[in-house]
Amino acid sequence: MVTVHTLTSKPTNQHRECRAQRHRDTEEESESEWERRGEESMKGGKRPIQVVATWARRQPPKIKVFLAVASAIVALVFLRMIIHDHDNLFVAAEAVHALGISVLIYKLTKEKTCAGLSLKSQELTALFLAVRLYCSFVMEFDIHTLLDSATLVTTLWVIYMIRFNLKSSYMEDKDNFKIYYVVIPCAVLSFLIHPTTQHHILNRIFWAFCVYLEAVSVLPQLRVMQNTKIVEPFTAHYVFALGVARFLSCAHWLLQVLDTRGRLLTALGYGLWPSMVLLSEIVQTFILADFCYYYVKSIFGGQLVLRLPSGVV
């Protein structure tokens, strides 16, 4: 009897241990399943910026325009509150532009590629900078002259790298924007509408030409991004820096007009020229506004490569 009892008790203990082990395994699997579902739920949950972006994208065009204007007004009010000398905004715009070019220099020297960059945009930039530098020398030499000089030198270096050292990676087939589409209209417009100051007529026409050309110089770069649909990080950083610089420059002019209660427009001259200056600043800001929106959305979404939907730029 003792032997039988011993033989029957051992399997019973083993069965209990097996059942206990299966129970622990089941609990661990259950906990793992809940953790996996929790992680999927967190991944599936949208961040606040994504929720706002989705809501804004679903709005009618009129609402989108209203939201864009309202956001610009809020940004202007904020800048007016924190920056007392609004001339600093223009210097900040030049500094941000220089920062963007620094990103390009890093891309060209470290990455050894110019893929995604528009040579034509760089050439247009060099053209309006050269004209503006000439006007600055003969009309008003100041700190902006030095900033423009440094920007022009670096832009010429970028052009040299794209044309010669990194020509094999240049996307010439994607950079298919016709430069004369913007140069000729800007030249004609500068003959028709230019400053009415006491300077020589050629200098006034050159001044107007560089203002108009700057407003549209980024169009070839936008065409390249439209053709590729995928914008690598350094190019995206550069174009975003251009957008910020254009906004700061536009804010400088608008706040100056508000502070002087319109007297700045009179100082610029009479006729259509003062209005064209403001219009050029606004145009070059809104040209890049759509791209900047998707750039910020991509950054908050943790995406390193920016993918643009159809019809963005």
UniProtKB/TrEMBL annotation:
Transmembrane is among the record's keywords: yes
Mode of membrane association: Multi-pass membrane protein
Biased composition (Polar residues): 1-12
InterPro entries associated with the record: ER_ret_rcpt (IPR000133)
Gene Ontology biological process terms in this record: protein retention in ER lumen; protein transport; vesicle-mediated transport
Segments crossing the lipid bilayer: 65-83, 145-166, 178-195, 201-222, 234-255, 275-296
Disordered, as annotated region: 1-42
GO CC field: endoplasmic reticulum membrane
Main location: endoplasmic reticulum
Keyword Transmembrane: yes
Keywords: Endoplasmic reticulum, ER-Golgi transport, Membrane, Protein transport, Receptor, Transmembrane, Transmembrane helix, Transport
Subcellular location: Endoplasmic reticulum membrane
Start-end of Basic and acidic residues biased regions: 14-26, 33-42
GO molecular function: ER retention sequence binding
Leader sequence residues: none
Recorded family membership: Belongs to the ERD2 family.
Protein name: ER lumen protein-retaining receptor erd-2.2-like isoform X1
Organism: Juglans regia (English walnut)
